[in-house]
Amino acid sequence: MERVGAARDLVLGYVRALNAIDEAMRVAIPSLERLADVLGLARSRRISRSGHIGTYSYTVHGAGCRFVSGNGTEVDVDFEADRSEVFDLWRLRWYGLSLPDPLDVTDKDLRSAVRSLQPLLAEVRPGWFSVAS
Question: Which run of H or E residues covers position 1?
């Protein structure tokens, strides 16, 4: 059960980090309504596909973006057509491994942690999760 608790803390840390990135990006780019708008800005070449905004470096990829904080913590997120943020177990594991004190958890423990956090999190399609609105 201790491992699931660590996985739960990791998932909550990811959600907090994602919220901090959203806030920092909105401060740096006042026209940003949602974090997903970074994709449109990059595609329209109003910002580069990679660079620095505020205290984060970012790299736009396919349907999402990877953000790296000053301490090296990585938050990779994809965006749905409705511009909501979604993530899978791989992104959660990668976040944990990038922490200053890395945390390696199993997919099984992450699945249990995510299930324990419903209704905070919703499974939007098999294996993909979003923070419930």
Answer: none
